[in-house]
Model the fold of this input.
Amino acid sequence: MASGGSVARAMLEGKKYVVRALTQDVTQPKVQVLRDLGAEVVKGDLNDKASVEAALKGAYGAFLVTNTWDHFSKEKEVCQASTFVPQGKVVADVAKSQGLKHVVYSGLENVKRLTNGKLEVLHFDGKGEVEEYFWSIAYFENFLGPLKPVKASDGDYYTLALPMGDVPMDGISVADIGAVVCSIFNSPEEFVGKAVGLSAEALTIQQYADVLSKGLGKEVRDAKITPEAYEKLEFPGAKEMANMCRFYQMKPDRDIQLTHRLNPKVKSFSQFISENQAALKSS
Done:
């Protein structure tokens, strides 16, 4: 619920909208934070049309985010397993039937379609099949977790392994998504029916490594790994990540200038790391 929570907090802080948050687990600490900020929290499931109808009843608009990584399944992203009702699209159907004015969907490109089947990135394709409207990119927060630098076995330095070559990779902090979505909701005449590719900035892997070096106080180097070598790494999703980077090397549409207009306070990667040094060093 990372980006969903960011959007809910930003809208609550803006005090222009009443916020209703739909979640499968209403006992999460993050959910309690939203309650404390004034959100109405309801238990529900995107696979359950009735709960979606209840959540959207009387709403002006909705922000929708699904998470392929929870189940690592394109099919579950797009379809409800038992009745083959599209999971993401059911929200669009309900929104239309209830007369919502504006729906923002956190989606990704359909890589398989765009590359004529040459590449398949399940967490992109699942979202891409649900008419993408709001495109996401690499989150800076991932550099504190799954993308964090790894200490090299042959020296006192760290390596950052992402198979991007010298092609810059776009990124943004999850925390900055909320203000962007608020701006989109506040300007429906400009954004309804349009896709928005977000990016705070685009850096090469070595540039990301240089920023991480300053944050860690240790040298971080680009591992210069190729997609072919990366997909052979022994962890779930290695091929998925390799294909994602192959797609990023094709430079999909991202708009840094528009992102900064929608959120003038959007952080650079350097600012993000500076504010999260403790998390970086403990991760």
